[in-house]
Amino acid sequence: MSAPRSNWKGYITFGEVTCPVALYTAASSSDRIRFNILNRKTGNRVRRDFIDSETGDAVEHDDQVKGYETGNGRYVVLEPEEIAAAIPDSDKTLAIDAFIPCDEIDDVYFDKPYYLAPQQSGEEAFALLRDGMKEAKVAAIASTVLFRRLRTVLIRPYGDGLIGTTLNYDYEVRSAEEAFDDMPDIKIDKEMLDLAAHIIGTKKGSYDASKFDDRYEEALAELVRAKIEGKPFKKVKAVKASKPSDLLQALKDSAGASKKSASKPKSAKSANSNSSSKKAAKQSGSSSSSPRKTG
């Protein structure tokens, strides 16, 4: 297996210590099913063109330019070289501005995660920073130019390495007050709270990413496979919201169901059978007729 390709190479600096590092994508959507847009009549792919909104003529790539609307259909034209000149120069340095408590930043500011690993000759300085942060139970706030933008990065110890998460700026995060402004002040009955607490208690567990499947992608794969094989496919039943008048009874039914479930744990044989079924489905889904990326 070939080594992963880094997205960025540079340095982390803290105090007078400089450590060469490489940055790798930690999460990717490249394995998702992708669709092409087709002409329903001919079955041919549709090509996207840029059309002049007034003349209706196609605009060639060399004639396309970015513009900022100032109002009333007027624009300030920004040439590529002007935009490039306005972007802060990149010195390829993640300069740590401060060390902060690990839980100080609200995760609503989290953007994209990247793995940070040392480059040759930087292993000792890298381990010093990683272990020092673990010992002090802190994260680091750094800034640099990444992908042609000045970005703030949260750096945390992660296994044998570090993980750097780009952060949204304050102006990019919408106010929660706007989203919850119309939320009424509701007083929940104690009996209902007690039933909810019971249900929550029976559902306590831990998070294991490998236990969760992308059901949307699976549903798309099954739909495409059914279309390829000319088979009918099952439609998902619509979910009905609980009415306020039925909420107490729904809680009682849920609490009763959780008690029965807790008294009858699934046997190892049954669990193994389900696991085998899932494996068989995955193997079937990886056959030559299985839908994968299409473009």
Main traits of this protein?
single chain; 295 residues; alpha+beta; 7 helices
Can you walk through the features of this model?
The protein has 295 residues and is an alpha+beta fold. The radius of gyration is 27 Å and the shape is extended. Among the domains are: 8-30 and 87-170, Beta Barrel (Ku70, Chain: A, Domain 2), CATH 2.40.290.10; 188-200 and 245-260, no CATH class. A 7-stranded mixed barrel has the order 1-2-6-9-8-7-5. Strands 3-4 form a two-stranded antiparallel sheet. It contains 7 helices and 9 strands; from the N terminus they run ββββαββαβββααααα. Helix 4 packs parallel to helix 6. Residues 266-290 have low confidence and may be disordered.
Radius of gyration: 27 Å
- What is the CATH T-level topology of the domain at 8-30 and 87-170? Ku70, Chain: A, Domain 2
Percentage of residues in helical conformation: 25-40%
Please state how the strands of the largest beta sheet are arranged side by side: 1-2-6-9-8-7-5
Strand content: 15-25%
- Report the strand count: 9
Largest beta-sheet characterization: 7 strands, mixed, barrel
CATH A-level architecture of the domain at 8-30 and 87-170: Beta Barrel
How do the helices and strands line up, and which of them pair or pack?
Blueprint: E1 8-14, E2 17-25, E3 66-71, E4 74-78, H1 80-86, E5 93-101, E6 110-118, H2 123-136, E7 138-146, E8 149-158, E9 161-167, H3 176-180, H4 190-202, H5 215-229, H6 247-263, H7 268-285
InterPro entries: DNA_bd_Ku70/Ku80, Prok_Ku, SPOC-like_C_dom_sf
Protein name: Non-homologous end joining protein Ku
Subunit structure: Homodimer. Interacts with LigD.
